[in-house]
Fold each of these.
Amino acid sequence: IVAAQSSTPEMVRLLLESKADPTIADRSGRLPLHLACERSYELVAQIVEVEEEVVNYADGTGKTPLLIVI
């Protein structure tokens, strides 16, 4: 979550290569992809291996990463 918030593509890549789980949500139900999309961090969002389940995952307010980008 912190790596997505800080827009550090290198850190996100390292975490994913180390098998970090990109589907773990924060207290508000947001995934790292939600945060990257909210902040328009295109590089971070591109690095995250996006599966349909993750793109359509609704946070605590019902927003999905896909809806945030649109």
Note: The two ends are 21 Å apart (CA to CA).
Amino acid sequence: HLIGNEAEIVTEKITSTFGQAKVFNDGAEILLNVQCAAEHHLVKGDKVLVIAYTKESHSYVVAPFPTELT
């Protein structure tokens, strides 16, 4: 139920295999293992959108937060 939530990158960068982001869920901060498509350049402090969950890697896929939603 975290898909569709806004998150913030907490590691220096996100790659297609590694990264972490924090998300707030019902008032609690949760640290997620995340990854993104190779064409995205996401770094610490960037806002992202949680778009999917990958069972194989037990991580969430994130994308840059759409500017029209800010």
Note: The chain has no helices and seven strands.
Amino acid sequence: ALTCLRVLPQLEVLNLNNVEQLTNQGVHHVSGLTYLRELDLGGCRALNDAAMTSLQHLTALTKLSLAGINR
């Protein structure tokens, strides 16, 4: 569960590559990481446009990998 990310508010890099169980709700927990600069969601096939909407609050994000997401 990504709820544990709440204790890491200053996290800058997160690699969730090929975590096929990652859901849109899980990505919502990532949206609170306002210091996040790099995020890899490649291969997380369960994600769709709703997950991307959650990421709009990540204003420090400079690198986002979505390789292998078909939606």
Note: Strands lie at 13-15, 38-40, 63-65.
Amino acid sequence: KDVCRTKRVFLPAAGYSNGSSVNNAGSNGNYWSSTENGSNAYNLNFNSGNVNMNNNNKTNGNSVRLVSVKP
């Protein structure tokens, strides 16, 4: 089987936390990568019109897990 055709993931637009509240839930997704850069780390950010890789402070409250989609 071709793994690319049978395995899917879902990245919810879960927003991010600033420590006291969740922001942009339902419209933005922010996910950490495993690549660190000192006190920063790279993350994937997306909304309905853009997808970007950023380098942000690790104290930002981004999601760390994706959701597996069962066929």
Note: The mean pLDDT is 83.
